[in-house]
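Thread: manganese (II) ion complex, take 2
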Amino acid sequence: MEFSTQTTTGLQQLRTAALGVGVFADGVLTAPAEVIDRASEGAISAVLSEFKGKANTHVVLRNLPGVKAERVIVIGLGKQDAYRATGHAAAEQLFANVCAGLNVADGVSTLATVECEGTTLRSRARAMAAAGQRSSYRYEATRTRDLEPAPKLKKLSLWTSRSKAAEALAGLKEGTAIGNGMNLARLLGDMPPNLCTPTYLGETAKKLGKEFKTLKVDVLDRKKIEAEKMGAFLSVARGSDEPPVFIVIRHVPKSPKAKGKAPLVLVGKGLTFDSGGISIKPSANMDEMKYDMCGAASVLGTLRAVAELELEREVIGLIASCENMPSGRANKPGDVVTSMSGQTIEILNTDAEGRLVLCDALTYAERFKPEAVIDIATLTGACVVALGHVNSGLFSTDDTLANELLEAGRETGDTAWRMPLEDAYQEQLRSNFADMANIGGMPAGSVTAACFLSRYTKAYPWAHLDIAGTAWKSGKEKGATGRPVPLLTQFLLSRS
Ligand code: BES
Ligand code: MN
Ligand code: ZN
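Output below.
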């Protein structure tokens, strides 16, 4: 999809297939809506008896007198005093989806001109382009029949004044890259686990390395993983016939500005299928455990975005990828394994495998002397119980890092909620036979999982994102969301 700015002054003169204007709740018109309303002698006011400007609602008005646009799409923005970045992002998404659904070729949005607390024109433009990119995603990789024809939507423009066009363009460029990163993460998530294997993730990383000059990719095979003594990761991988990979994908910018700064490291959980292993999961919805690699997918998506933007900052992605399967070689409850850090772990439940693969990746990260490490994982069902599908769970002992991540989430509408991570919870991981157990019992399951990881992150500032509730949607709309690529990319942009 192509994005540009549109600086025609008289909005009613603008020729486009679809013009998007916002209306707040209780019929408060935004400035662009007012212009169209006046030019059309009250066409928008006339529908306010039915259309109340609630968030996630819209109405399409065709052939308005005095207006050159073929259609005006009135988008509900919700209550004006509660209008924030998330509301704006949702409104742009609705506009883009409506344009795609109407099968028009181009559209112009005025939504980014509307002031919105805690945002800038640049960040609003970013949200608009990301929304446009998202609306163009369709899963086709393994479908042959009944495909809906691809939407004709090719171009979305942001209406603004000439003096602000440069700022808007900068935001559109960032949003384009974020959207591309999200769509990559979504495709990898949605692909079936017989095709999207650890090997396939490795190939995808290598392909990114060919496509973007700043990306250096190294895919470690089982032998090399053994040489690194990643005993916890390997214990999970051993249960499957599918070989594991450990991916190192580095964005190394050429600019001298980036030199001398410690890198930022992202660590992704890459379970291309999690059956639970010997502690096998119930069969209902087990297919959704193909999404257990969404942390890894978000790392690849974010590195793609960072490379497309030529970010002036070294960013390293680490992915530990394997399957968790029951077999004669699989982990058994009671097994004790030795992690790369030397700490021993008693495996009391083979379904708590994410922390076993992550702990070794977190130890591996030490060699880069990172400024900060963030791991991203579909780690616990307990996190879904706690936060549902709205917020990712954020765990960190570093308040500065935590606040930056929360802010990046708010700015992009890809929100996270901070969870506790106190020493008092560590006690639940006590084991009689190893340095720690891999589960902490029923209470606070997502917190004890984070506590487990914290034991491997003493060498650097660290945060953990549990995306079990946010990485994909279930039911009729089943599909990967691409989260938290926006949050991560925004965080990296802010740090650069
Ligand atoms: N991948 C799952 C977590 C998960 C479950 C994410 C359902 C999304 C939906 C993870 O490996 C897992 O199985 N965790 C266990 C931990 C438990 C055994 C301590 C869980 O959450 O049940
Ligand atoms: Mn599991
Ligand atoms: Zn898992």
